[in-house]
Every structure is written in C-alpha cells, then in structure tokens.
Amino acid sequence: MNNADKRIPEEIAPEVLELASRYYAQQSQSYSPGELIAAGKEVNIPPELIQQAIQEVQAKHQQQLEKQKQLAHLRQRLLIFGAGIVAALTVWTAWTYNSLQSSSTRVEAAWAQVENQLQRRADLIPNLVNVTQAYAKQEKDLISLLVQSRQAYVQAATPEQKANAIAQINQAIALFQNYAAANNQLSSSQLFINLQYELAGTENRIAVERMRYNQAVQAYNREIQNFPNSLVANTFGFDKHKFFQANNTQVPKILP
Predict the structure, then answer these.
(1) How far apart are CA 53 and CA 130, in angstroms?
(2) In this structure, are residues 113 and 209 in contact, taking their beta carbons and an 8 Å threshold?
(3) Which residues are within 8 A (CB) of 119 and not within 5 positions of it... i.e. 6 or more apart?
C-alpha cells in the first residue's frame, strides 16, 4: 500500500488539515524574485534595483532575527541566573535558620544546666529546715521562710516566677547563714558544717553554669542581630534571650 492509499486516523485529520492550510497560506503569500522583477517592470523599476532591494530587506530581517535570538538567549541566561540566586538564597536561609536554631538550643541546654543546680540548691532546703528544727526550735519564722521559698521554686512555671522564687531562696539561705553565725551550737554542729560544704559547692556550680549560660546567650543574641542573619531571625521569630542576673535582694529580718 502506497502513501496515497494509507488511511489517516480521524482524530489527527483536523490537525493535518490545519497545518496544511498554514503551509498553503505561507506559500500563497510569498513571491519569487522573478515575480518581483516582473512587477517592478510594470512601474519602470530596473531589475538590478529590485535585486538590491531584495538583498537589503533580507539582510535587515536576518539582523532582526539574530537580535531576537540574542534576546531570547539573554532572557534564558537571566532566568538561569535568577534561578541560581533563588537556589543560593534558599540554601543560605536554610543554613542560617539551622544555625540560629542550634544556637537557641544551646541556650536552652545551658539554662537547663543552671536549673539543675538551682533545683539542687532548692533540694537542700529540707536539710536546712531539719538543722534549724534540731538546734533552734523556736525559730518558726525562719523555718517557714525556708519552706515557703522552696515551695515557690517548685511551683514556679514561668521564667518570671522562677526569678522571684530564686530571690526568695537566696533570702532564705542568707538569713539561715546569718542566724547560724550567731548561734554557736548550730554553727559548730557537723550537720551544719556538711550543709555549708553542700551549699558552697552548689553555689560554685551555679556560678559556672550561669557563666556558660550567659556566654551562650551572648553568642546567640549577637548572631541574630548581625546582618544578614537578622533578616532570617526576624522572619522566623527568633527573639533575644535574657541574661541570667545573680542579684540578691535585701535579706528581710525575722522578728524574734
């Protein structure tokens, strides 16, 4: 079966006819050089001028075609360059976000270590209460202050509440130490001496962990404030962390 007798599927027939019509229109709308020369003779235009005009017009259209190709190539390069920039920004944003998240996690981990030591000091309060009850049963106000300060720390849920509870524990322990210094029987007991070692060791550990926490906060706050990290920090809501201040308030006096 030759090509003329080959059947064309119905679903592609419309597309074939449409394409053939476009080819026919292009062919019917074009002229050969001979046709243009013949048309020029009717108005007394020399053939050589027709040939010159054909060459100039063809050269002009060729230049326009080259410019279009160059513009298309330039647009393609700009699109590739823009896509590269977007990809680079995406990678940088992800890297910066992960870096800030890691810094924030280090701050939280450092604060957890501070809280461990603060909890350890709060857990010494019952021992202070036992010592006070053993050697100074009449000091009910001191015992009450010690118990209340520990209870306030255990029940604290927010950073502000914990800060207030830490201040109360500082007051209670300082008051206990002042009272022990004035009570020879209490200050000379082995229980008190052991507690003093425990308190001193805990205070040293708190100081070390507080320093590490503040260093982590300083590094984190500097990282989110530096440009261009600040752009990512502001976009994703990375807020500054507060430093842990170790300022003790004035110790209240217990009435005898």
Answers:
(1) 115
(2) yes
(3) 153
The pLDDT score that the predictor gives to residue 250 is 39
Task: Write the burial class of residue 146 (CB in 10 Å: 0-12 exposed, 13-18 middle, 19+ buried).
Answer: buried
CA distance linking residue 59 with residue 19, whole number of Å: 28
Q: What angle do CA 78, 79, 84 make, to 5 degrees?
A: 95
% of the chain with per-residue pLDDT over 90: 16
pTM of the complete model: 0.61
Query: Rounded to whole angstroms, how far apart are CA atoms 101 and 120?
Result: 29
**Cα four-point dihedral sign 182, 187, 191, 196:** positive
pLDDT in tens, 65-104: 899 889 989 999 999 999 999 999 999 999 999 999 999 9
φ/ψ of 243, rounded to 5, equals: -75, 150
Rounded-to-integer distance, Cα 161 and Cα 251, Å: 19
> Which range among 4-13, 223-232, 233-242 shows the weakest confidence by mean pLDDT?
4-13
Q: Are 255 and 141 in contact (CB under 8 A)?
A: yes
